[in-house]
Amino acid sequence: MKIAAIQHFSMLDYPGKMSAIIFTQGCPLRCSYCHNADLQPISPGTIPFSDVISFLKSRVGLLEGIVFCGGEPLFQSDLYEAMVQVKKLGFAVGLHTSGYIYERFCEILPVVDWVGFDIKTTFKNYEKITGVSNSGNIAEKSFIKMLKHRNNLDFEIRTTVDSRYINFDDLLEIAHFLKDNNVKEWVLQQCVLRYEDKDDVALSLPNDAELEKLKKVINIKVRS
Ligand code: SF4
């Protein structure tokens, strides 16, 4: 497992659980708004997994969950084994993912407890955000597969609204898709563009009237 960093404590990344975050190295997507571009390359990790396990042993009874984040954790060929080791220590296992790499997602579904699943945009328009052709088809397959396991895991569906590439009709289409699949809540995250040489730019979220229309379809939580 290629690990770039560990965050020792978070109350934000696994709803309701005091967690540590494991940042994996490598991601096959190139999202338009990525804040973790340094985690995209397939380069060696800097932290051995044995060090992670030693740290986690020191947190038994203090933390409740461990979240695998990235990069794209599904990129790690030994993700399943790593999750099993974490669970054996008594932690709940969380995953932040785009669902890209279907076979590995299927492999880990029996062991993961909570998934934060990013729906980037309508599946047919994925390439506009991810820069990778066919990424929408794969994400959709993973999403449908996850729903089949919904009795055994919790999940959060979220979309970072990059308003340069997602319009209101796209959002409405996603809302109906989620409703048709019995998803109860959808998180819309504000997209913030970060630059090295100038201030951050926060892109606009749907306006009040648009939010009301979306809320008639599905419960919406806005995160800015
Ligand atoms: S999936 Fe995540 S880590 Fe990968 S490019 Fe997109 S935002 Fe960045």
Q: Could you outline the blueprint of secondary structure elements for this entry?
A:
Layout: E1 3-10, E2 19-24, H1 49-57, E3 65-69, H2 79-88, E4 92-97, H3 102-108, E5 114-118, H4 126-130, H5 135-148, E6 154-161, H6 168-180, E7 185-190, E8 192-193, E9 201-202, H7 208-215, E10 219-223
Parallel strand pairs: 2-3, 3-4, 4-5, 5-6, 6-7, 7-10
Antiparallel strand pairs: 1-2, 8-9
Residues 27, 29-31, 34, 36, 39-40, 70-72, 98 line the site of iron/sulfur cluster.
Can you offer a commentary on this structure?
With 224 residues, the protein is α/β, with parallel strands linked by helices. The protein has a domain at 3-157: Alpha-Beta Barrel (TIM Barrel). The protein has 7 helices and 10 strands. Helix 2 (79-88) links the parallel strand 3 and strand 4. The protein is globular, with a radius of gyration of 17 Å. The chain binds iron/sulfur cluster (SF4). Residues 27, 29-31, 34, 36, 39-40, 70-72, 98 line the site of iron/sulfur cluster (SF4).
